[in-house]
Amino acid sequence: MTGLRHFLVALQFFTRIPITGSLARWVGFEPDMLRASAGHFPGVGWIVGAVGTAVMWAGLLLLPGEAGALAAALLGLAATVWLTGAFHEDGLTDMIDGLGGSAERERALEIMKDSRIGSFGALAMVLTVGLKVALLAALADQDESAALAGLLAAHVLSRFAPLALMRSLPYVGGEGGKAKPMADAVSAGSLVVALCWALPALALLVATQPVENVLGAMLLALAVVAWMLRLLRRRLAGFTGDALGATQQLCEVALYLGLAVQLA
Fold first, then answer.
1. Which of 60, 153, 185, 196 has its CA 20 to 30 A from that of 160?
2. How far is it, in rounded angstroms, from Cα 151 to Cα 101?
3. 239: which strand partners?
4. What is the rounded CA–CA span in Å between residue 62 and residue 72?
5. Which residues have C-beta within 8 Å of that of residue 173, sequence separation ≥ 6?
6. What is the CA radius of gyration of the chain?
7. DSSP conformational letter for 37
8. In 3D, which of 7, 51, 5, 44 has the Cα closest to residue 159?
């Protein structure tokens, strides 16, 4: 039952789904619980991805043609953004604003804490959202079932990626940062839990996509993680909550790109 409590803590922290009343009293909350919930990040992806997939499926069913696929992809994406409160998208925007706004570490961290959106962050948001919609629509145009499976699996697998940052880098976001309760390194046990959530998503991709596309998508996602690790070591000497959200977003795009590429 401890695992379920940790999962519900992660669900409450990363989505708008309310955990209230007697359920909230049963779950409880302490900073240590949030750290322990890290292994359930991909589990939250199953919930978010399922909602987005259901909305996109309804859109594909009701809206015909290429324009319908584009609208369905946009609706599915909108559902995931609403469910998470744009939590990860906000992290991407803040990180790009910080790293783009100053070459100095302390100033970059200061910019990340500013709630206002700058030109770098706005461009990153527009390009990322546009890419996700376009790639999902392209994938749906090839195979609707593959697109739906890809949307679901990408939300799970992309939430495994930030754990690599938390495992490999120190937290540098300051006392008021989003990820402060998770500042300690992710335990090996949490990684095992996360892997148990992620492997079924990988199996779903293998069952619905060409193997070469799945391999390409995973390699692209791994390349994003490696690039983020190098970038954050060099620029910030650690990770912030915004960097975790940015990693999730970029890995999600990488997975869609790998799945949508026509290799044959």
1. 60
2. 32
3. 171
4. 9
5. 109, 112, 179, 180, 183, 239, 240, 241, 242
6. 18
7. G
8. 44
Within 10 Å of residue 239's Cβ, how many Cβ atoms?
A: 29
Establish how many alpha carbons lie within 13 A of residue 80's alpha carbon, considering only the half-sphere containing its beta carbon.
Answer: 28
Per domain, the residue ranges of the chain are: 2-258
Cβ neighbour number for residue 4 with a 10 Å cutoff: 11
Per-residue pLDDT tens digits of the chain, which is 264 residues long: 677 888 888 888 899 988 778 876 776 766 667 777 889 999 999 999 999 999 999 999 999 888 899 999 999 999 999 999 999 999 999 999 999 999 999 999 999 998 888 899 999 999 999 999 999 999 999 899 999 999 999 999 999 999 999 999 999 977 655 555 555 667 888 899 999 999 999 999 999 999 999 999 999 999 999 999 999 999 999 999 999 999 999 999 999 999 999 754
Lookup result for tokens 């594909």: 60
Place of tokens 């993680």: 225
Closest by CA to 1, choosing from 22, 31, 26, 35, is 26
- How far is Cα of residue 89 from the mean position of the Cα atoms in its chain? 9
Record the tokens describing residue 20, joined without a space.
Answer: 């209230």
pTM, entire model: 0.93
**Alpha carbon 228 to chain centroid distance?**
14
- Only one residue has tokens 């739906």, namely 148
Token output for 88: 């990860």
Q: Please report, as a single letter, which amino acid is at residue 118.
A: G
Partners of 171 in the beta sheet? Answer: 239
